[in-house]
Design brief:
mainly beta; elongated
Length: 122
């Protein structure tokens, strides 16, 4: 299983970006998914989380500005980021809890994407 995040870039304060994360491989099902971020010198933190049923949770710092969504048919995860602030600058990672494999090789575990850089600066 591989997760590929994309959509990062350089944007001015107040701007918007949409991150995408595509999961591929021998996937049976995807449970919870989430976006995390890590700024220089800081620990990785949860940004937003979504269950397989669509229930969402956001960090206080992004509530009202970011929207997490998923397309189960495409095994994809998205993060719409509006009104971006300089403090949103970080590498953004997607994570998914995935059931994958066949027979004796079936397992359920967390997978991480490589990350995409988001820089908010004027």
């Amino acid at each position: 299983v591989q997760l590929q995040a994309s959509g990062g870039g350089l944007v001015q304060p107040g701007g918007s970006l949409r991150l995408s994360c595509a999961a591929s491989g021998s996937i049976f099902n995807i449970n919870d998914m989430g976006w995390y971020r890590q700024a220089p010198g800081k620990q990785r933190e949860l940004v937003a989380h979504i269950t397989s049923g669509g229930s969402t949770h956001y960090a206080d710092s992004v509530k009202g500005r970011f929207t997490i969504s998923r397309d189960n048919a495409k095994n994809a995860l998205y993060l719409q980021m509006n009104n971006l602030k300089p403090e949103d600058t970080a590498v953004y990672y997607c994570k998914a809890n995935v059931g994958a494999g066949v027979g004796d090789f079936f397992s359920v575990r967390d997978y991480w994407g490589r990350g995409t850089q988001v820089t908010v600066s004027s």
